Structure formats: structure tokens, C-alpha cells
Amino acid sequence: MKQRLIALVSFAFILSVAFGFYTTLEAKNENAYSDRRKAIDKFLKVVDIVEKYYVDPIDIDTALQKAMDGMLSNLDAHSGYIEGKQYQEMNIKMQGEFGGLGITVSMRDGALTVESPIEGTPADAAGIESGDIILKIDDKSTIGMNIDDAVGLMRGKPGTKVTLTIIRKGRERPFEAPIVRAIIKVQSVYAKTYGDDVLYLRIVSFDKNVAASLKREINARKGEFKGIILDLRNNAGGLMDQAVEATDIFVDKGVIVSQKGRVESENRVITASKNGTLTNIPMVVLVNGGSASASEIVAGSLQDHRRAVIVGEKTFGKGSVQVVMPLRDTGESDAIRLTIARYYLPSGRSIQAMGIVPDVEVKRISFKEIESEYEVKESQLKGHLEAQLNAANGTTGEEKPKADPNVIAETQLNNDYQLKTALGILRGLIVLKK
Question: Using one digit for the tens of pLDDT, what is the confidence trace for 382-434?
Fold first, then answer.
């Protein structure tokens, strides 16, 4: 009897605790629902006021789209609402061809900032540099403008002109840069040689063709080089899977990159494979402030694996992962770009807002030969021996020899101290390997 009484009391106690927990949980859920309902009611009230009293007529669809755009763009610099036309253009860009200036931008502290110009594009030809702040696009100020609207203004019909007002560090006043829009066809990988033992590979952006292009260039010259320079300067990123595949070419084991987010299904750890890996070739990687996102995955992973010496300047510091989610189930052709995770390098470090610090820091400078204005040369004298001079230079006097576009020229090295330093370090690594 006594034992039964104890059991009943125990059961009653457990039941009361469970009921109390359930009641507390229900109260919490009810409070959360109530708070959510109040917030939504407040939002709808604001929309209603705007729709009724704003100085210009505005329909509910426009008001809600602007609200969604504002919400997403205020989460971080890389989230945003993408209208149908922009969504199509973005897909085209990832295919390696798009219309515009050839410039990648982001918001830094509310300022529209150039991440990097794409090599060989109108923006590159106009002298736009990484770190430039775009103050105006034509006559429209970029202050308070979201990034998608800014990109929309810079894109347009090929052959039309747009003028960017630029603020650049080291210049006292803003200046204007007129640029003619063009169809941007991006060659993602360039390859050159130096001497008979160095392969120079430049990756402009990580579109869907990068890994295949890298392998093709390497295989075409296999056995002909003893060291590699991988140039990721002004590479603003692109597809993460291409960055992983590019890294996997040079690393045969261990973690390449991992990503962690709030949703467990978004957590990933990506490791290297042994197939076709070049682990025995000395390597130097060039980076600068325009190297971001996917290019930072490559440089940071190779640095953590001690697979390459990183040379140049501190990188941009974009260590977040975005996904583009189409809104097709709502009947719209629009999409949202949302930051869902941060990525981490093999050592576990995040580079978000930190960047990759090179092993050897080198500023971008160039050398110039200065000739004395009082120096007199044979070529300046009357009746100089032109035939001998032309013969010494390997010309006939009628035309100059053309530079081989597949070979790094000495003039290029003299105009690029970072590349010259990288080459010197690589030569040392080749000797050490021997």
C-alpha cells in the first residue's frame, strides 16, 4: 500500500512537471506567435500609410517589392532582391559572357566600391582600379543606392557611354571616367611561359569553365615547366565549386574548404582527391585587394596546406556563402540572393572581413628607366650607322619584332614588381627542390 502511494505521488509529480513544461512551452510559442503577429501588423500598417499618403501614386506590388529589397540589402552587403531581368543577366554572366562595363562592385560602409575590373574589358581599359569608390553613375548619386540598382545603371546597350565619378585614395578630388559599354566576353584563364621552366596562369574570374581550362593549359605543357605562378589578382570570385576544383589540381589530401550556417543541411566539408594532382611542382600565388571570395578560397587553402607561397597584398575578405533562390513557385521570374553560411579554410580560420595576408607582402609598383636629357647617343648623331643598329636589334629598319602574347616579356616584368618578385621566389623554390 505504501509503495503504491509512493508510486502515485511520483507519477503525479512527473505529470505536474510535464504539464508545467508543456504549459511553459505553449506560452512561449503563443508569445512568439503574438510578437510575430504584432510585427506583421505594424509592417502592413506602414505599407497601408505609404500607399495612401505618399506624394506619388504607388501600388501594393511596388511597395512590397521595395520593402523586400530593403530588408535583404540591409542584412549584409551581398544579400539582395533580384528582379527577373537582373536574374537572367546574372545567369548569362556565369556562362562567361554578359553586357556592361566589366566591373565587379560591392558595398563597403555604404559606399559603392570596386572589387576589381575584369581584365581586357572597357572598365580595365579606362583605368578603373580595385578600391575605387563610385560616387556617381552619370548624374545619379550612389549614396543610399542598393547594389542591384547600381549594377542596373552601369549595364546597358553596347556602344552607349556611361560616366563614373570616382573617388580614389591618394587623389585630392573626385574625377570622371567615361566608359563605353560593350558585350563582355570573359576568357577565364590565360596562360603564358617565362624562360623554359615557368608556367604563368592567370584566372580572371571563376565561371563554370575555370577548372577545365586550367587542366587543359597544364596538360598542354606537361613536362615543359618546373614551377607555376598562379595569378589571382583582381579576381572577384564566382562559383565556389570551380574554386574547389582548381585547388584540387594542386592538393591531394585534406580539407580544401568547409562551410557552416544556421541550417545544418548547409554545412559541408570538402576534401581533396588524389586524381591527377600536381603536388611536386613548386608554386607561387599572386593576390591583391581585388582578390575576393572564390579566389580567397584557393589562395587560403593553398597557404594552409603549405602548398604555395602567397605573394602580393592583403585580399578583400569576403568569406560568406550566397545562394540564389528563384521565386518561381510564386509565379514570378525574380529571385533572392541570400547569405546562408560562412566558409572556413583548412586551418579552421574564417577570412570574413579579415582577408588573406600574403606570406610575402609586396606593393604594386613599376620600374621606369630614366634617361638623362643631356645624354647623347649614336642614334642621335647625323649619319649614324642605322644598318648596324637595326641588325643589332634584329630588325630591318622597316618594322619592329612583335611580342609573343604567349610569353612574359621583360617589359611586363619591369611594369609589375609583384610578378617580378613572384618569379624570383619561384626560381628559389625550383633550386631548393633540386
Answer: 555 555 545 555 555 555 556 677 889 887 888 899 999 999 999 999 999 87
Which contiguous run of DSSP H or E holds residue 11? helix 2-53
- List, in sequence order, the alpha helices (H) in 75-225: 84-94, 122-125, 147-154, 210-220
Interatomic CA distance for residues 236 and 294, integer angstroms: 7
CATH of region 97-185: 2.30.42.10
CB 227 within 8 A of CB 306: no
Query: Of the listed 73, 116, 188, 293, which one is catalytic?
Result: 293
How many whole angstroms separate alpha carbon 340 and alpha carbon 264?
11
Task: Please say if 318 is a catalytic residue.
Answer: yes
Locate 385 and state its grid cell.
650607322
Which of 69, 304, 320, 420 is catalytic? The answer is 304
Report the predicted TM-score, pTM, of the whole model to 2 decimal places: 0.68
Each domain of the chain, given as residue ranges in start order, spans: 97-185, 189-361
Topology given in CATH for the domain delimited by 189-361 = 2-enoyl-CoA Hydratase; Chain A, domain 1 (3.90.226)
